[in-house]
Every structure is written in structure tokens, then in C-alpha cells.
């Protein structure tokens, strides 16, 4: 039986005695949140005397969460091994040149949300990494530099290298030894140039990711039924952490774009395309720049903040995707829509925002963009994404732009028919700019009685983006028993200094 820890942060992340996870099944999942989890767990493990100068730590996964945890532990004089299955640190971000990351934008409507750096003030403790808004691949290079600088600083302060990093290496399994006081780890055979010098640790922290992104759908009807894709084919879209073509749409003339999903990934991509802005923060700032809008904003933002706070507190105690969860998210969604209308109906605001929106859309080259999602509300998403999509939806109606922008709730994808080509799941970009037909099916919210009726006529698309959530499977990266998904409320800024 796993003993109960007195420290609430350690208890919330414990999988087994001396084994912890700071990624799998957790929300929220922004880079900033990963940094906070990594920093806090290392400090709490030291405080609880589970690790120390004679008590080594193993960290699995060299993304932002894992690197932050490992560096923090090493800075506190803990001998630390960091193991990564890929060849490089920050592998996901290194491969993505088109995803713009902003450390604080999703704290909207709190006052510091526009800050492009994290931590946003010298008043807060400094972490071992600086996080400045930038594109993901560029940030990965900056983080690698910060990592090397932190390693140098740790060595100069403590007089020894407390951190060892091993790439191309995986944890096969672990067992408890020394009367349960150590975790003995078996590493998988690989082409790693170095082998760990230790296999017994005082604690193990897994930061091996959140699961596999779901970006595929069934492709094609049988040819006998008029389909054009090969039977049994699978359509796969470009992933969230892959360099996409959404910022270079003019390469395809006037494309038709369909984005499927209701999570933050789908909403983020929808907003990028709609306004041609690099981030949600950029789009919000552009639309809200008028004086009447600036005057009306504070009361709207206070109402949104109150509704978000209530929803987060309620959702922490609701089973994900339960009827209770849907009730919470539906009420929050309705509040956002009500506040959007309240904003646009405020004196002078509609006269400012609607022409701005019309001019913005006129500059975009796409023929039409469609957002499809399966419920009549979004799941738990960042407030800025939810508010902006609700704002775009209402502005589309008021500006009569329904031919350019369409939002289809309670709708799902039955299959994707590739018109003049077969999909290549190993090269999703090969489908970009090629004609597709998407056959839809009605979906229903758990709060609804019957599924929505949708047309049997397919919709055309030249770019299809699938953001269907995370598939965690039945196995945890270091443990066969997965943890139940868990929502958290994390601090906005680092609560403790490191060195």
C-alpha cells in the first residue's frame, strides 16, 4: 500500500512509494505549468528529505518539466540523472517553427497576462530558465543555452557536476529495494552513447509527457460506394508540435480550412487562421485597441474572472467528461457568450470592433474556415481561447461573414475522403493543399437528449487539422497502472527561490 505523504504536492503526484509523475494525465499543461511543477517537486522532495546530497534522484523525460526538475534538484546538491528517450532535449519544441508560445497570455484576465516573460517581475523568485515569448523552435535553442548556463552555475557554486544526462535511453521498469528505501531501475538497451552510473535511486520523477496526440481519422469510403481514397486508409493531420502551414496559407491560393476539436489546440489554431495573428494575445490586443472598448473591458473581464474561478473550483471535484463536468463547462460557456454580447452592446464598442474585424478578415486569403466540435460547449479550456472564439462567433454574425467563417457544434467527423490522392500517415503535409471531402455525423452533449442532425452532403476542405485530444492508452511510461486524469490549480508565479 502506498503510504500517505504529509506534503500535499508530493501526495498529489505520487504513483508509488518514492515514484512521482508531473505530467501524465494532469491539467493544465502549458510550458509555464510544466516549469512550475518541475521546480516545486524537486524542492519539496528535498524538504521532505527524500532526496539530498547522498540520496540521488532519477528524472525521466527531458522536456521542460523534466529539465526544470533535474536542474532544480542539482542546484540543491542532489546527484541527479536525467534520462531522455529522444536524441535531444526539448525534442517536441525543437521540431516546431510555427507555434508561437507566450508564457502568461492564458492567465487572462488577470493583470499580468500581457507580460511576455516568465516570471514577469523581479519581485518573484527566479527559476533556472528564462521564458520569453517566441516561436517554439527558437525557444528550444534558448532553453538549451539556459540549460548549459545553469549547469555551469551549479558547478561553480557547488564545485561539482551534480547532473548527468543520458539520451536515447528509456526506463524499462523499476522495483523497490533496500526495504522500500530505494527504487532500482532497469534501463532499456539502446544506442545511447553513455550508460547511467547508477541504477538505484532515492526517488524517481517521471516527466515523460502527457500521452499521444490524436490527429487521425478514418479515410475514404469503399470505392464501390464512390469513394476515392483506398479502403482502410487512415487520414492523419499535422500535429500540434509539428511545423504546420497555417501561417503560409497563400501558398494554396484561397484554401478551405477545417479544424476539428474543442480543446485549446484546436481553438488556438482556429484563432491563428481567422485573424492571421501569431497568438491569441495578439488577436485580442488588435481587436480591443479602441477607446470605447478599453473603457468597457474592465467590467467584462471581472465577470469572466469570477466565472472562471467558480468553474475551476467546481471542475476540480467533477469526474472529467461526466454530466457534472458538462454542466460546469456549459454554464461557463454561456457566461462567456453573454459577456461577449454585453461587450459588443456597450456604447461605441460595436462601432469599433466590427469594422476592425471586417478589415482583418478581408486581408486573409482563405475562402472559408470551419471549426467543428462535438459538444455544444468547449471542455475545460483557457479563458482567453474560449472568450475569443465566442467573440469571433458573434462578430461573424454581426458582420455577416458566415460565408467565410463557420462554427459547427455537436458535429463530428465520420471519415475524410481524399479526392485525388491517398493519405500518407507518415507525411501528413502531403495532404496540405489537396482537395478533401469530410463526411460529418451528429454528436450530442451529455446534457442533451438527442444527437444533432447533420447534412449527408460532405464539406470540402484543402487543409484539415485534427485536434482530437490526448490518447493516454493503458500504460504509463514508467508504470503499468495509469493515474486517473487530474486537474490542478497551480500558482501563477514561482513560490520559492532555488539558488
Summarize the structure.
The protein is α/β, with parallel strands linked by helices.
Fold blueprint:
Elements: H1 8-13, E1 14-16, E2 19-21, E3 26-27, H2 31-47, E4 57-60, H3 64-75, E5 80-83, H4 91-94, E6 100-101, E7 117-118, E8 131-132, E9 134-135, H5 136-158, E10 163-166, E11 171-177, E12 182-187, E13 200-201, E14 203-206, E15 212-213, E16 216-219, E17 233-236, E18 256-260, H6 264-275, H7 280-287, H8 291-315, H9 323-344, H10 349-362, E19 368-372, H11 383-398, E20 405-408, E21 411-418, E22 436-442, E23 459-461, E24 463-466, E25 470-471, E26 486-487
Parallel strand pairs: 2-14, 3-26, 4-5, 4-14, 5-10, 18-19, 18-24, 19-20
Antiparallel strand pairs: 1-2, 6-9, 7-8, 11-12, 12-13, 15-25, 16-17, 21-22, 22-23
